[in-house]
Design goal:
This is Short-chain dehydrogenase/reductase SDR. InterPro entries: KR_dom (IPR057326), NAD(P)-bd_dom_sf (IPR036291), Sc_DH/Rdtase_CS (IPR020904), SDR_fam (IPR002347). GO terms for molecular function: oxidoreductase activity. It comes from Hymenobacter roseosalivarius DSM 11622. The protein is α/β, with parallel strands linked by helices. Helix 3 (about 70-80) links the parallel strand 2 and strand 3. It has helices spanning about 10-25, 45-60, 70-80, 95-110, 135-160, 185-205, 230-240, 250-265, 275-285, 285-300, 330-335; strands at about 40, 60-65, 85-90, 115-120, 125, 165-170, 210-215, 215-220, 225-230, 250, 270, 315. The chain has one domain: 3-Layer(aba) Sandwich (Rossmann fold). The mean pLDDT is about 95. The longest helix is centred in the middle third of the chain and has 29 residues, at about 135-160.
Amino acid sequence: MKQKTQPKWLALAGMGAVVAAAALWSNRRGSYDLAGRVVLITGGSRGLGLVLARQAVAEGAKVAICARDAEELERARQELAAAGTEVVALQRDLTDPEAVRSLIAEVQQQLGFIDVLINNAGIITAGPLDHMELREYQDSMDTHFWAPLHAMQAVLPAMRRRGEGRIINIASVGGKVPVPHLAPYCASKFALVGLSESFRIELKQHGILVTTICPNLLRTGSARHAIIKGKHQQEYATFVIADSLPVLTLDAETAGRRIWNACRRGDAEVILGTPAKLLAGLHGLIPGTTTDLLSLVNRALPGENGELGDERRHGYESESAASRSWVTTLTRKAEKENNELSSDK
């Protein structure tokens, strides 16, 4: 007898109901109190990291942030310290394992044992596959996989002894679904998702809860720091315009609140943003169809650019009339609000 199959529309309707329920759940505040807790946020000097730091400080947490740019870091420290709580800002290159270990040791020396570790530091390289060299993959893996791994290993001994701890790994919807022109980013974020979920499985028994966060595009203002390859101006304009659209993106403050709610609840995973939830759900149901659809999106993106396309330029070096147009107003606003601007960039 031929077995009846469930209509695809019914499965998609069920997925929509799950997305709606997830949206309600993501706004539910858990019971974990941040007041007096020691929180370390990597990449905390700007963008989402700074937003998370502001929100933790507002709740009375003792906050440590780290970043590579000393000037940027000091501006963030001064802003956070003005709220009257303890703030430590440390300059570190997290791609150096020893720098990560010394970071953890210094934070614990100055503030006490780390209660919450947020692995937020990130980089992004946008461009066609033909312009992605081995360096792009190595840099992405060093930042998104190895740095969180070294940080988690460094905080775990003290968390195990105390029988508690929270670890938040900021991955991406690009760690659930492949996104065209972001191959190194997606590969490293897929790796981080697997690492984070594996740690969750084995550490929960010790009272240590690991949460994987997979955001949609966020309006943090960080697009200008992306590394652009290929047809630089066209590529960046496409990237920054997509990063600015309200329907496709989520504002950083809302994302930050939902991340802290997930931390308080001790969730295993949170996908932020309705487009991300739908895309991840669709990919889970019909992965082949999803990748085929995304291959059509890829055809609409800027193409290769010969030898010139191999050159690495930051977003702020790839501006054009399109990237400066009114369409990117929300991103420009976020740049000013989240310490993304400096005198020379």
